[in-house]
Amino acid sequence: MNNIFVYCEVTEERLVADVSLELLSKGRKLADDLKVKLEAVVIGHKVTKPEALLYPFGVDVIHYADDEKLFPYTTLPHASIIIELFKKEKPEIVLFGATSIGRDLAPRVASALRCGLTADCTSLEIGDHFENKTQTEYKNLLYQIRPAFGGNIIATIINPETRPQMATVREGVMKKEVYSVKYKGKLNKIDARSILKDEDFAVTIIERHLEKSKIDIKNSQVVIAGGYGVGSKENFQLLFDLAEILGAQVGASRAAVDAGFVEHERQVGQTGVTVRPKLYIACGISGAVQHRAGMDQSAQIISINTDIDAPINQIADYTIHGNVADVIPRMIKYYKKNSK
Amino acid sequence: MRFRIIVLAKQVPDTRNVGKDAMKADGTVNRAALSAIFNPEDLHALEQALSIKDKIPYAEVILLTMGPTRAAEIIREAMYRGADQGFLITDRKFAGSDTLATSYALSLAVKKLAPYHLVISGRQAIDGDTAQVGPQTAEKLGIPQITYAEEILSLDAKKIIVKRRLERGVEVVNSTLPALITVHSSAPPCRQRIGKLLMKYKHARTVTELQNETKDYTELYNERPYLLIEEWSADDLKAETQNLGLSGSPTKVKKIENVVFQHKESTILSNSDKDIEKLMQTLIRSHIIG
Known about the structure:
The complex is a heterodimer of chains A (340) and B (290). Chain A is α/β, with parallel strands linked by helices and 340 residues long.
């Protein structure tokens, strides 16, 4: 069997992005299951110490294309290099971060290679498949598991015939884990100039204003999240008030973001951020599968909801049966009264 | 030459308003319980196309969609808002298409409409949220893609300048034409229907729809041929059967589960001061907060 590849995204600070390190950690586990190698693809310019950074995650080979024309990211040059590399290496599995880069790049590559791609997976496993129609048995396929259909169902997707099997995964879904600090792989330098053509530069960047996100719900110990049931932008202020005194971050469900109550950066769930805080307070959130996928590993969950049958209550440790606008001010009051 | 803009759009089940009857007892989706709508981000895409037409009088906007007969609804909807024409790609052979097979069919239809200058679609559809069809169609057409577009800053016959909305800011890019653009929900919403256009196009039908009409439209259509919405089959697109539908789709659904969550012993608290105070005391005592 051929190897597992992870496309490593390069950040503004020219480091390999966290999401890629998370995928390498997952990729290493899959590689061990399949007894194959883990290979990283790094495309950029003057990336900070890719070897020292990546080998500890169990990377056997780093394919590194270093050229000033490859940073910042644009679609076509990165796609051309990857397509060329994959035609030669024929990976078994390829993982991309489900970021604005990965979700732009992976489909272009999948189309050129005519292979399957599953977006926003929340779990990846190895398993077999028996196709009744053709009476064919497939061993060791990648199960690409994701909520689908607006989060009302969980689908397991497979690519029996085509290779590579490709998937994108959001940041925070997989855990970043160092494999062995002493692990050593080898470096394969890619000569970008020999691959790229003029038409790969049809799109040029004129201006960029990127900043590190100021909203960091992923690393917050306490997350107070609001849903459509919060009712208004004004009511969301109550969540911010509670967050401030608890030192928490405010998150939101997709419905609340779509309704314009808060910015998209706060969205928790399959198409947002995955969080694992010590405490998650779900305010007026019904708890669609897509939302639960991004928060069900929270250590403690409190749900505040007027609907006692809301699905979120099934995973909550405490359910407060009541209205958000009515409950939160009193949580603030009794927190102040009881804390030192 | 006209400046041809092709808008790719999809009719989707309204997964945002899923009621309790959306799932059948066997765990499959009860499509009948979901209303079909114009995919929200595709409406943002249509607005981008229409606003180009506002500025460039020789621009034309063509809506292209793939789906069952019913999907002609969104073509009419686009015409009511200012699209000039629409085509429905429809064939049983397309059933079961994943994003790769879909982009193959769409790219053949776009090629049939060549020469074109711009292809615009929404970033993603709410029933799958994959955001894959746009980039895959661009690859099949061999043209550049600009994803997450928020605003078209300038445009001429040969190039376009677009502001993109990324996770952590914005980027302004310049691309040669033709190009494919996918539009982000942060772009302006689509204008409403225009009364005059509603009157003009309310009788627009596909051939299949006409066959199901009790009224005879022959005379009206002789007079106003623009009312006919053309349908394209796999043969009309000269599509290779092995690239269509299930056989053209590398991804297969192995299993679908209605989600069952591990039921926790949830403590139900009332809305009373006593219960809320007790909860806050418990949280503080266990050092979760405070």
